[in-house]
Amino acid sequence: MPLIRASFTSVRLSRAPQAGLAGIGVIWGSLVASLPDVTARLGTDAAGLGFAMLAGSLASLTAMAIAPRVAAAAPGIALPAVMAAMALSAVPLGLVAVPLTFAIAMVFAGMTTGLTLFARGPDEAAPVGVTKAFRGRVGSHAWLAGGVVLVAFFVENSTEVWSALHIERTLGGGAAEGSFGPAVLGLTMGIERL
83, 89, 155, 157: least CB-packed within 10 angstroms? Predict the structure, then answer.
């Protein structure tokens, strides 16, 4: 019974990060599902699309490094502000028709996504010990774990992003089938993480 109570407490305390992750899933899932159409609209090849996606990923990693400072500078409003910025940054991704402009839009979308995992809602206090966690030296175990997570995210992102293109271009599937593949992948990853 204490384990179930602790689980419900964890879910209650993590509602704002869960909302952030759900927003990220909706935005990036929608983009991934429409990648074949986006690629055709941009008139680019897989390398050009890959460059734009990499620019967004690097921007996200950079934003994660500054996220604690952003959250500290705007306590209580960081999460709503970042979520609104993330929603606005996704709009150009569906509208631009020039590869360079798409890459720039990916940078902004990646930055707002990177800022979302650390921001807190207005009713959430910082967990005990968070301020101490960002001081001092990062140990080798943390770097190793971070490296493993980085590789896992690159593999996951590559699988998710390129699967829609693979289904349509290589396997001859239609647009609905191309978007269904990444949707199922995202759904199974979400269920497993929950």
Answer: 155
